[in-house]
Amino acid sequence: MSMPGVLVDGRPADALAVADRGLQYGDGLFETFAVRDGRPELWTAHLARLARGGERLSLPLPDPGLLAAEAEQLCRGVARGVLKLIVTRGVGGRGYAPPRPCRPTRVLSLHPWPAHPPGHATGGVRVRWCAHPLSLNPRLAGLKHLNRLDQVLARAEWDDPTIAEGLMCDPHGHVVEGTMSNLFVLRDGRLLTPPLDGAGIAGVMREVVLEAARGLGLVVAQAALRPAEVLAADGVGLSNSVIGLWPVRELEGRTWHAVHADLRRLAAAVTVARGA
Amino acid sequence: MSMPGVLVDGRPADALAVADRGLQYGDGLFETFAVRDGRPELWTAHLARLARGGERLSLPLPDPGLLAAEAEQLCRGVARGVLKLIVTRGVGGRGYAPPRPCRPTRVLSLHPWPAHPPGHATGGVRVRWCAHPLSLNPRLAGLKHLNRLDQVLARAEWDDPTIAEGLMCDPHGHVVEGTMSNLFVLRDGRLLTPPLDGAGIAGVMREVVLEAARGLGLVVAQAALRPAEVLAADGVGLSNSVIGLWPVRELEGRTWHAVHADLRRLAAAVTVARGA
């Protein structure tokens, strides 16, 4: 089969109307699924987050059964891949007012599994700080919406392929997450992760990590973190739906020489939880 | 001719690649021109703002001569209309890292002139407050980029057609602008407009208004404004490239019974400046 395969509103296509509000305004949501053995992982959790986003944006969503059928069609026979689902508010005229009625556009696209070195998951990754801040907006925080210029500009700050991720702060200097991942910090036996009430994306894998941590008996808390507190941590981890949980090995000069035992146990529990 | 006419990379088209980063991430910029007698107004000022945005986003822009030729092609014979120009970072793979090399996509589309009542310009408009705040990000502030979910959600807060615009605050409660316009406030003989260093779009017409105000001998200043200060103003105005300068007649119960003489003079000077 040819990758990536794309379905727009259920039909094979590689183009979308210029008047679609996804292009005009970033007026939509997306989800990124790891695909394994023909099946998108954590389907229910991703669809639940999409539903929460749809509610916050008053964006009517396609029928979940339809999405499942189209996802199955695209993923059939795919041993490993990545499925991206975009839902936009559909075609509208010029002007910000949402079209009424609104006919959302759905785009499913299949992509190759990224060729991350296996050492990333076992030995950890090199990470840097990004200067570009995340936009602060309590009403948009947590959502996986299509306004992703912050991530684009932060990710453009480096092209050293040995650096796997960049950490981003909000405009007040609190560390929030990576450009494509959520952040976890081990400190004094507790697993801390930044609150996402002002900026950031509430990752599906973040929930899996937090749930797995509780299952391991770790004390879990949300905590505002300054860069110095991340650097002072006993261990640092990054999560997303494709990578699972990566330990951080190096952060601009600060080195964690061995992967913390709790991070190792946590990564193993996450692997089990995602059904891999 | 059929409206809207659309050119994608110079060719008539109404679709764009699904993999375009304009759709995937809102990774691009746009400009909205008033078209009169076959000509987009304030072309040089719009292109200068586009260039500033391209620099801030490290987004290579199409040749200005090419854009001018395509705009002329679309606008030929159009007595009144609206031209929208979008430039995106073009097609890329999955992931935030910008494609290298990057081949930007340009989309020019022609739209009907909006049917605003003529009284809006002369007698003023009814305006409301929006609850949805503008995202705060000093690195993106001022740019007319494609991440416009804030404006979409604010504009969705009302559908009363007698309300022409909604005013938006930043998350700290400072008034910044309208969903589609910049804001001006007359107070004690001075013309004040909010600074755009944290949020908002630096409108081309905003510059025209400020320049015209200086030409009329008005004292002009940027000033952080709370909602109460807008309500207490001697006069309030709204500007964008299509509407020019509208006085505000009513803001949720507060009424300005006559258009302030300075606003009237200013609107007349703006009309002259835009060559109408």
Protein architecture, described:
Chains A, B: Pathway: Cofactor biosynthesis; tetrahydrofolate biosynthesis; 4-aminobenzoate from chorismate: step 2/2. Chains A, B: Its cofactor is pyridoxal 5'-phosphate. Chains A, B: One of its GO terms (biological process) is folic acid biosynthetic process. Two copies of one chain form a homodimer. The first copy, chain A, folds into two domains: 6-112, 2-Layer Sandwich (D-amino Acid Aminotransferase, Chain A, domain 1), CATH 3.30.470; 125-274, Alpha-Beta Barrel (D-amino Acid Aminotransferase, Chain A, domain 2). Chain A contains eight helices and 16 strands. The first copy, chain A, has helices spanning 21-25, 43-57, 64-75, 119-122, 149-155, 204-215, 227-231, 261-273; strands at residues 6-8, 11-12, 15-17, 28-36, 39-40, 80-88, 105-112, 125-129, 163-169, 175-178, 182-187, 190-193, 219-222, 235-240, 244-251, 254-255. In chain A, strand 8, helix 5 (149-155) and strand 9 (163-169) form a beta-alpha-beta unit. Chain A is globular, with a radius of gyration of 19 Å. The model of chain A has no long low-confidence stretch (mean pLDDT 96). At the A-B interface, strand 3, helix 1, strand 6, strand 7 and helix 5 of A face strand 3, helix 1, strand 6, strand 7 and helix 5 of B.
